[in-house]
Amino acid sequence: MDFAAELASNWLRFLTHDLTRYAEFAIGVWLVLWIVLASVLRGRKIREESPPTKQLMTEFFTSLRTVAIFSTFGLIPYVLERVGILHGNDIATSWGPVWFWTSLVLMVVVHDAYFYWVHRFMHDPRLFRRFHRRHHKSHNPSPFAAYSFDIGEAAVMALFVPTYVMLVPTQWEVVGLFVLHQIYRNTLGHSGYELMPARGDGRPMFDVFTTTTHHDLHHAQAGWNYGLYFTWWDRLMGTEHPEYHTRFAAACRKPLLPAPAAISRPSAV
Ligand SMILES: [Zn+2]
Ligand SMILES: [Zn+2]
Q1: How far is the CA of 218 from the centre of ligand 1 (A)?
Q2: How far apart are CA 269 and CA 266, in angstroms?
């Protein structure tokens, strides 16, 4: 097989795999939360109203276009390895299982930082129309909105994996797990249902992670909550929505009590 035919065959392989995975997660989350468990989870629905079917269809087909762009960018590391320039997979394999799991956590943490800053820049009025308007047409998103991106946004997001694996030795299996985690969090974040358990004071059980309410607020009121997996960038940069915890508690049907640290101690006199 000549090189062009090999590339075409691998692109088709990536595309089939990526489209199937997106469809499995988006349709799966929609089917489980919106249909099968809809009555059980009624008390965890963030908003009263649901988006119209037309919006879901648009999000789905736009996401398919994004997945095709991701698959195309996926050829970059394939070609670099094939021509003998990229050795990250072999190096990472020789570093053993500790690096396997460390590199997975590292990739997620670095991607979170990449997403926060790229996302925040895309909200600049000079970039928003070209890069990020499509995603925000979903004021009330559905799981299908996970990859509902303009072409420019899709390309910028697709650049992450090829760039990262060129800089940090990473096994392909780690990249596979990273992508699974990413699509899982992304579809849940747009699902409209708050599934994070709440603590007794109404705050998220694991407040370091973003919740569906966190990203839902970003769609409802852009300008806040740019983070993807973790809340630390929004807190560090002062961009967390001031009502985030109130909205989270409301989504969990709990009163928001003062945080333990905020409960006043007897003052020394
Ligand atoms: Zn945004
Ligand atoms: Zn979104």
Answers
A1: 6
A2: 9
